Amino acid sequence: MTIEQTPAPARSDVRRTPADSRRPTRPFRKRGMLLTAGALAWAGAMVTMGSDPHGATEEAVYSTLSGLFQVGLLGLLTVLWQSQALGEGKVARFFLRLEGFVLLLAMASTFVDGISVSDLDQAGWMMLDLCWPLSMLGMFLIGVRIAIAGRWRGASRWWPLVAESWAIVSVPAYGAFGSTVAGFVGAAHLCVGYAVLGQIVARKER
Description:
The chain is mostly helical. The protein has helices spanning 18-22, 29-49, 56-83, 90-114, 123-149, 155-163, 166-177, 179-203. The chain has one domain (28-45, 53-203). The relative contact order is 0.17.
């Protein structure tokens, strides 16, 4: 009598299920690359035009490039939401929703500036224009919360705080040194901060 025994398959013999094969190893890659592209685009606009463009053409180009950065920020917010980087509680979700709403208003402000229909002498347009710095201040608070929550590890835990300190660094530079110097300061900070953060996000596996 011959008894045949079939050995259990090794781990390397186990077939991946269709669901496993479809799951991306770096699910945030596109949004991370978009954030990097947007940061570099806006940095280039600052270097060539300063932080206060003049004329309809410059305004249109500047608004387009800074708007690309804002789209990248919106993508970053979706990554933070999906990964629960701020925590799982209702307060964290509410703050991300609020930041997203303010950022959308900031994008609207960028659009109307680009087509030269805003008038900052009027209170309504001024309030809309304030959404841009307010959204950047909100991103700074988000960076603080990511560091405290500790749900992202390694560089991804601390680099958001570096990137999202942009308003804390660049806005005072504008007041102290004017638009030309502030443009270089803001551009350098974007490259060191958000452009690098985009690459960190692009490489995250979850």
